[in-house]
Amino acid sequence: MEKINIAVFVSGGGTNLQALIDAQKQNILVSGSIKLVISSKSEAYAMERAKRASIPAVYVPASDEEALLKLLKEYNIGLIVLAGYLSILSEYFVDRYRDRIINIHPSLIPSFCGKGFYGLYVHEAALNYGVKVTGATVHYVNKEVDGGQIISQKAVYIRESDTPESLQKRVMEEAEWEILPAATESVCRRLRLIER
Ligand code: GRF
Hints:
It is a single chain. The chain has 196 residues and is an alpha/beta fold. The chain has six helices and seven strands. A seven-stranded mixed β-sheet has the order 3-2-1-4-5-6-7, covered by helices on one side. The mean pLDDT is 97. 5-O-phosphono-beta-D-ribofuranosylamine is lined by residues 10, 12-16, 46, 83-84, 104-106, 172, 176.
């Protein structure tokens, strides 16, 4: 059975992309194959990670959705993984890939999510609120920001000494890098069954 062709959308450092690349090497991600990396920032370090893994990496400004759609078609992409992609995709775009776009968010949705909750702001908000547990969520993408169906979550305990930076690091290490590859594999497996 053919694997699902995956495109990973990035804007930054790409540690989640790296976790996906590593999962592919370690045979944790086997039902899909990363065929393309698209960056909304020309200087994103994630592009370097893609090139090192011999995966084509293309810079496409987020405003150029027609170019995005053209590339996705060219590479016959069946699943889009948003891994630190900082732009919001239009309803038109999301409709074209219904149930075929997933995102990783660094909190336990529905806490600390939605518009404006990205990067360190998420962890700052969790610390300011005083929650004792946070974590990460992988969810399907629909037209509501961070509003699609939840696929997977993992909790991370907050420490008294945490800063937004230390919490961001731990949420990545303890939750994001584990649940994103696992959720990507389970979604690819489901898509393969549908396509059979
Ligand atoms: C991660 O915290 C992810 O949850 C969020 O953006 C960050 C991306 O980090 N959506 P990286 O580029 O994968 O290192």
